[in-house]
């Protein structure tokens, strides 16, 4: 019986990592950046959108690199489509949208940067979940220039 215990607790022979291994492309990766916020329009027609840039080698994604522009409302749409125990979005900032403020409210650079960071964290948490990676809405959000809000929800099937 002692021999079984020794075998069960014996250290594995681990292969030493080479420099080639350390700097090789990771086996699986999914990188999503929310960058380059741009504010458009004037007055009540103003809004800010963000570039959502994705790189991956995961087989579930047919497109390995994409870049799309998304507004806050698009992130809300994605969250509502998934409706699971997913992270919350950064706040909508209703007080910053009040008229007669002495500043630019939701169009101030600091606010836009804080929101950008929150949106990046949100989309990375969702996209990093293996079940969410198969959702059509996530693929559309990350890869299609225009979100088809009349799409049929479902899973992506690998060909």
TrEMBL record:
PANTHER family listed in its UniProt record: RE52028P (PTHR45963:SF2)
Keyword terms of this UniProt record: Cytoplasm, Golgi apparatus, Lipid-binding, Membrane, Protein transport, Transport
Protein's job: Required for retention of late Golgi membrane proteins. Component of the retrieval machinery that functions by direct interaction with the cytosolic tails of certain TGN membrane proteins during the sorting/budding process at the prevacuolar compartment. Binds phosphatidylinositol 3-phosphate (PtdIns(P3)).
InterPro entries in UniProt: PX_dom, PX_dom_sf, Sorting_Nexin
Lineage: Eukaryota, Metazoa, Ecdysozoa, Arthropoda, Hexapoda
BP GO terms, sorted: endocytic recycling; late endosome to Golgi transport; protein transport
Gene Ontology cellular component terms for the protein in this record: early endosome membrane; Golgi membrane; retromer complex
MF (Gene Ontology): phosphatidylinositol-3-phosphate binding
Membrane topology, from the record: Peripheral membrane protein
Xref: Gene3D superfamilies: Phox-like domain
Family membership: Belongs to the sorting nexin family.
Compartments where located: Cytoplasm; Golgi apparatus membrane; Prevacuolar compartment membrane
Pfam families from the UniProt entry: PX
Annotated organism of origin: Timema shepardi
Name of this chain's protein: Sorting nexin-3
Domain PX: residue ranges: 28-148
